[in-house]
């Protein structure tokens, strides 16, 4: 008969296998094994007689469809290739004996297959191996493991490559694997391979209870690897057979085995140790399998867990808890709720005792969290009954000393409160309390009352060490109960209030206490809260007033009632105001002021009560009447009232307009339900009521705005604007035309005053003139506030009134007019297109310096409109007309104007690049080229401004970096000019390119950049040395030292060497530095990079350190140390130390008008007073016109020796300053430093105790550089601390007597005399 393995590759319907007799294969295999193992020591093979019968494998695979497939476990194993050759190639280099045996068996099998002309595929090897192994196992004697194991290994390798039908055929493969597993002398390695085969067979649907028993027996094997694999096999079997009878069978087998071993360990004294070990092994199995078992058998296992928990042994408890955790965390597991809740309740009693280990407590607390939540989701009624017991167990765990267990128990309590307390449970408790008040007989406390009592008990002194955790649990309970917390938690709130009286020394949780009280306030509401915890304003002694409640009320009140404020809080305001008046009449000014502060604190609660109130529609009319009266009579409350109106109106408008209200994590938990109560209908009704009250409020606010000289924070303007946005049109129109009439009258008055001033009349009547200007400015501000309530026609009327004001000679009026126009352009869609010609004509007018910032806002809208138009000519005309003005504004002295010019430049760029509105990258590059075109200007101011504009656009848009590199030749040509203004701007552009460019772009242009930086004209070589050095350092950091060195000119190599040495020196210093400096460095290097700041980049209008620019630009180099100022800047700081100048306050946008006599005189007067004040000060030195120090005789000559810090602070007045002093000047210009010199002795070192003064103390002068973002500046600022603590460290650990006995003190005590009448301190 022809033997062989025939496969039909295109239509594999049948697999025919025909092999020679098994005995021949077995004999050849044994022969090969003997030859391979002759060199091994003592290997004995039994003689296995050939079987008389011939096992023909033709029928093994007859009629079976092939299902060959690769598995993830052995992806390289060939399916149709030579399996034997593949395995020999992998094991040929191995020297392990078992690998040699395996190769020998494979060789003999390959020879046998080759002799029979069979294909050497995994299927053929499977058939041959099964035939050989069957003969080995059919003998009476047990075969040697050295022979059996290679066969089993081969089967484990080929099983995944053989079809399921072939494996299940005649049950031969399963029978062989089970026979191997039952061998008494089987090795762990053989068991592992056999288990791999078994799990593969079982997961294909072979339902054999005998196989499950074998797996379970192996789960208690002494070898850990075997147990682990057996557990994994059981888990895989359960997972594959989920929901079938096989799963029921396996689950029953596992449960019965667990119960049997449990009884054995419990009842048999002789084998108790062995039984206990078997139980521990089975617990590991259950951890893997219990979540996949059937519900009936899981209940049996849980009953066994309950028996094991009685032992309270950590080795037993941990696997039990892990098994229950796995059961509860698996969302598809079948959980018997009654059994689970019972065992959890049992654990709450057992594992909360003090003698329980920390690990057991922690794992138990985590089990309570997941177990009770899962049980509650499956059967609420069963879970609720046992919930108080679990709460008590967690409470006892919190009382333990184990930190991890405390955290776990706190988290579990918070989770159970949020998940297991529902509305029905709360309603049941409320009904019980209400019935008890009606004298209805009450049997026992409800579940929710028990839970609240448990939570309340956490505030006992027994838990004082963990009160911070207790406050978290109490807060969670307040938030969960909400308004019903007043029924259950009243006593808890009283206890929290009493804790406020605890001294700070023994109570470090004040902040957590206030947060907990705030949670109670948010849950109960302010009305109920203040009924329980009273402010106690009626106390005769003001120290008894609970002022600590005011910040909590202000922060956590949300969703309150406006009627409570009008009826209760406002009555308190009236009472306290009357009390303050009485105290003032009695001459008790201090007490009167204290009461006035309480009145203001009560008014400060109004914004919180306006935060999503529940009765706006019903109570706002009464509140509006009160507010109108308070606005007219109490000026100090206007800001609070305006803020409250803004909050109330804006919140309702957002709801009506459908805007989503952002809620951050730090917001009060009561905010979410308060927002939920607001819908569009509710908010519309609220706005309707406020609309009816708007006329009266607008009239009062506009009148106050006219009369008041200032509006701190713009609160009046914002309130008027919000009211105008909701008021009726006729109300706003009436107020608008009234304002315009007043503006017209004020303008006529101003014109008349100007004419009289020009004619020489009333020259000194400057106050009246300024008053009319201020009135016109306030009227323009009022127009800005009314704009939200105006229609298009009224906006045109306002625009008409602005035209003459925009050409007014007074800068203040121009500024206000441009401000009104910018708001109109921002808020009115289509206004630009409708009035384009007029706007272009107005924008061509020259404006006052103070109005330039608001004019830039107007120009932005014009240029943004031009960017969207399709008319290329119109776009080019508009941009070319106004872009130079925006660029020149980059050179403005006023910082706000300068910053706004940069913003406008960038915003226009974004408008050109916005694809959604017709922009694209091509338009952006065209806009960039227009900015570059301004470099053709003649004046240095225009050229430097254009360079700054290019730098800003390059910083903002990475797509423009390549275009900016094309400007490098022009940049280097401009650097050759002897103009500091242009040079600074170009160095700033280079700094931006180096910081923002990718490394590849820098390498491509590195040579030109380095050579261009080092070519300087003679007159400016030393002016920007520090900036050039900084740029080189940035290049070294990004490109590497070798790259920069390769392009560095030879004559400048010393500079590169110096940079490297300085860097290495600083790194060594840092490595040897203190822990404080390292922590500062780590903080600094982890800080975020700053945003654009033109002052830092160009150093044009600030006298900051030159080297700080690099740190600013490069976000990764924040820890870079400073370089010294250039010699030129140091010399400039020496010249003219007291140069006469006007001290001008530039806090506002309007600079000093030198043509205004009144303002000039005022500035001169303030300058003279300032110089006189400085001259009279004893703390500052005086210099003559040539810079020499003036020393006075007499009182001024008796200056005491000051400390090093004070000397540093005054070293900036020294003329002949050395390099060291220059550095000192740089790090200590922080103003006045207190030296404590009044304690200094005239005759000896040390400090003296002075009469009527505090005792001497070590001081550390404060320095603003402590707040610097740069580590080297902070390190210098804290350096003075070393001198403060030097003596303390020297005497550390010594008693007072030992300290006084030291050599220094002995010399001091013997060599110095105490001054009469004074006592010397240590």
From TrEMBL:
Basic residues bias locations: 1306-1322
Biased composition (Acidic residues): 1103-1114
Domain RRP12 N-terminal HEAT: 72-335
Positions with biased composition (Basic and acidic residues): 1081-1090, 1199-1211
Domain RRP12 HEAT intervals: 400-707
Region Disordered: start-end pairs: 1067-1090, 1103-1182, 1199-1221, 1302-1322
Similarity comment: Belongs to the RRP12 family.
PANTHER family membership: OS02G0782100 PROTEIN
Protein name: Ribosomal RNA-processing protein 12-like conserved domain-containing protein
Lineage of origin: Eukaryota, Viridiplantae, Streptophyta, Embryophyta, Tracheophyta
């Amino acid at each position: 008969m022809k033997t062989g393995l025939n496969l039909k590759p295109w239509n594999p319907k049948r697999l025919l296998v025909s092999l020679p007799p098994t005995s021949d294969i077995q004999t050849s295999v044994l022969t090969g094994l003997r030859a391979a193992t002759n060199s091994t020591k003592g290997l004995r093979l039994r003689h296995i007689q050939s079987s008389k019968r011939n096992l023909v494998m033709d029928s093994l695979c007859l009629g079976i469809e092939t299902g060959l497939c690769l598995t993830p476990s052995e992806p390289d194993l060939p399916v149709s290739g030579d399996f034997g050759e593949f395995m020999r190639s992998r094991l040929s280099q191995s020297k392990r004996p078992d690998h040699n045996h395996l190769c020998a068996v494979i060789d003999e099998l390959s020879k046998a297959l080759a002799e029979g002309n069979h294909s050497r595929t995994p299927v053929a090897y499977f058939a041959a191996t099964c035939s050989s192994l069957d003969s080995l196992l059919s003998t009476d004697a047990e075969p040697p493991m050295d022979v059996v194991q290679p066969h089993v290994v081969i089967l484990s390798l080929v099983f995944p490559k053989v079809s399921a039908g072939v494996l299940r055929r005649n049950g031969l493969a399963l029978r062989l694997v089970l026979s191997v597993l039952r061998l008494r002398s089987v090795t762990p390695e053989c068991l592992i391979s056999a288990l791999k085969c078994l799990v593969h067979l079982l997961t294909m649907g072979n339902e054999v209870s005998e196989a499950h028993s074998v797996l379970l027996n192996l789960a208690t094997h002494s070898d850990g690897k075997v147990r682990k694999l057996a557990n994994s096999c059981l888990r895989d079997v359960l997972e594959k057979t989920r929901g079938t009878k096989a799963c029921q069978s396996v689950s029953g087998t596992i449960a019965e085995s667990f119960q049997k071993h449990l009884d054995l360990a419990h009842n048999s004294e002789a084998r108790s140790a062995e039984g206990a070990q078997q139980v521990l092994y089975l617990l590991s199995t259950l951890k893997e399998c219990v979540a996949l078992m059937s519900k009936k058998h899981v209940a049996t296992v849980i009953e066994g867990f309950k028996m094991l928990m009685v032992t309270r042994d950590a080795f037993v408890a941990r696997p039990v808890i892990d098994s229950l955790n796995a059961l509860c965390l698996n969302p598809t597991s079948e959980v018997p709720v009654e059994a689970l809740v019972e065992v959890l309740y049992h654990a709450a009693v057992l594992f909360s005792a003090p003698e329980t280990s920390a690990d057991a407590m922690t794992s138990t607390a985590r089990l309570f969290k997941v177990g009770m939540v899962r049980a509650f989701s499956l059967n609420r009624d069963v879970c609720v009954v046992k919930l108080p017991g679990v709460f008590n167990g967690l409470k006892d765990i919190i009382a333990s000393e184990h930190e991890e267990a405390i955290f776990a128990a706190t988290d579990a309590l918070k989770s159970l409160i949020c998940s297991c307390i529902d509305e029905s449970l709360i309603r049941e408790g409320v009904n019980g309390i209400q019935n008890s008040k009606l004298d209805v007989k009450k049997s026992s406390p409800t579940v929710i009352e028990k839970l609240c009592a448990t939570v309340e008990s956490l505030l006992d002194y027994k838990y004082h060490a963990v009160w911070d955790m207790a406050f978290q649990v109490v807060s969670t309970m307040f938030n969960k109960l909400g308004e019903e917390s007043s029924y259950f938690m009243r006593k808890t709130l009283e206890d929290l209030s009493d804790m406020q009286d605890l001294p700070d020394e023994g109570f470090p949780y004040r902040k957590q206490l206030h947060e907990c009280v705030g949670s109670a306030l948010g849950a109960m509401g302010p009305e109920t809260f203040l009924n329980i915890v009273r402010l106690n304003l009626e106390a005769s002694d003001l120290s008894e007033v609970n002022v600590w409640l005011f910040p909590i009320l202000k922060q956590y009140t949300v969703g309150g009632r406006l009627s409570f404020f009008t009826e209760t809080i406002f009555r308190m305001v009236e009472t306290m105001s009357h009390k303050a008046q009485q105290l003032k009449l009695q001459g008790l000014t201090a007490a009167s002021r204290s009461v006035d502060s309480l009145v203001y604190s009560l008014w400060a609660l109004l914004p919180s009560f306006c935060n999503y109130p529940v009765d706006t529609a019903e109570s706002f009319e009464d509140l509006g009447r009160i507010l109108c009266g308070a606005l007219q009579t109490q000026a100090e409350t206007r800001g609070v009232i305006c803020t409250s109106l803004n909050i109330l109106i804006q919140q309702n408008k957002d709801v009506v307009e459908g805007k989503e209200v952002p809620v951050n994590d730090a917001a009060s938990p009561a905010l979410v339900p308060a927002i939920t109560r607001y819908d569009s209908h509710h908010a519309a009704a609220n706005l309707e009521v406020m609309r009816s009250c708007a006329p009266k409020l607008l009239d009062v606010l506009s009148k106050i705005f006219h009369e008041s000289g200032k509006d701190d924070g713009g609160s009046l303007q914002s309130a008027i604007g919000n009211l105008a946005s909701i008021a009726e049109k006729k109300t706003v129109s009436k107020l608008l035309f009234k304002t315009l009439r007043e503006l017209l009258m004020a303008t006529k008055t101003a014109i008349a005053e100007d004419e009289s001033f020009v004619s020489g009349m009333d020259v000194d009547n400057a106050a009246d003139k300024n008053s009319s200007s201020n009135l016109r400015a306030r009227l323009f501000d009022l127009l800005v506030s009314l704009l939200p309530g105006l229609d298009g026609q009224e906006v045109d009327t306002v625009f008409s009134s602005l035209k003459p004001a925009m050409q007014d000679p007074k800068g203040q009026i121009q500024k206000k007019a441009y401000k009104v126009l910018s708001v109109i352009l921002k808020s009115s869609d289509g206004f630009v297109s409708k009035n384009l010609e007029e706007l272009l004509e107005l924008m061509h007018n020259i404006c006052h310096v103070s109005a330039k910032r608001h004019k830039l806002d107007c120009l932005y809208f014009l240029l943004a409109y031009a960017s969207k138009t399709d008319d290329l000519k119109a776009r080019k005309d508009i941009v070319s007309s106004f872009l130079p003005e925006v660029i020149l504004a980059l050179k403005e002295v006023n910082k706000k104007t300068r910053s706004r010019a940069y913003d406008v430049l960038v915003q226009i760029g974004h408008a050109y690049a916005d694809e959604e509105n017709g922009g694209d990258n091509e338009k952006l590059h065209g806009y960039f080229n227009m900015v570059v075109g301004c470099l053709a200007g003649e004046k240095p101011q225009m050229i430097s401004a254009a360079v700054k504009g290019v730098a800003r656009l390059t910083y903002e848009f990475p797509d423009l970096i390549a275009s900016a590199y094309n400007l490098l030749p022009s940049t280097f040509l401009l650097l050759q000019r002897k103009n500091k203004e242009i040079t600074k701007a170009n160095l700033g552009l280079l700094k931006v390119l180096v910081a923002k460019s990718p490394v590849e772009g820098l390498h491509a242009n590195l040579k030109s950049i380095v050579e261009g930086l080092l070519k300087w004209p003679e007159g400016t070589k030393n002016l920007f040395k520090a900036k050039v050095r900084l740029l080189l350092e940035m290049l070294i950091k990004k490109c590497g030292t070798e790259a920069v060195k390769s392009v560095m000119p030879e004559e400048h190599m010393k500079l590169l060497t110096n940079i490297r040495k300085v860097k290495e020196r600083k790194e060594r210093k840092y490595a040897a530095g203190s822990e404080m400096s390292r922590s500062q460095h780590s903080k600094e290097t982890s800080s975020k990079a700053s945003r654009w700041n033109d002052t830092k980049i160009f150093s044009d209008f600030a006298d900051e350190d030159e080297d700080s620019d690099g740190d600013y630009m490069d976000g990764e180099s924040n820890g870079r140390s400073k370089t010294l100022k250039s010699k030129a800047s140091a010399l400039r700081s020496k010249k003219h130390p007291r140069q006469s100048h006007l001290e001008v306050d530039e806090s506002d946008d309007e600079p000093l008008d030198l043509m205004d006599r009144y303002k000039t005189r005022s500035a001169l007067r303030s300058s003279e007073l300032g110089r006189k004040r400085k001259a009279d000060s004893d703390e500052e030195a005086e210099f003559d016109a040539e810079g020499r120090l003036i020393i006075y005789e007499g009182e001024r000559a008796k200056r005491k020796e000051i400390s090093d810090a004070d000397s540093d602070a005054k070293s900036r007045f020294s003329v002949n300053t050395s390099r060291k002093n220059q550095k000192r000047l740089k790090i200590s210009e922080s103003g006045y430093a207190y030296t404590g010199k009044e304690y200094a002795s005239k005759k000896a070192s040390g400090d003296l105790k002075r009469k009527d003064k505090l005792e001497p103390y070590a001081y550390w002068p404060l320095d603003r550089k402590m707040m610097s973002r740069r580590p080297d500046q902070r390190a210098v600022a804290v350096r003075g601390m070393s001198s403060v603590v030097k003596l303390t460290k020297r005497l550390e650990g010594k008693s007072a007597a030992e300290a006084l006995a030291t050599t220094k003190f002995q010399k001091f005590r013997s060599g110095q005399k105490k001054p009469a009448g004074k006592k010397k301190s240590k």
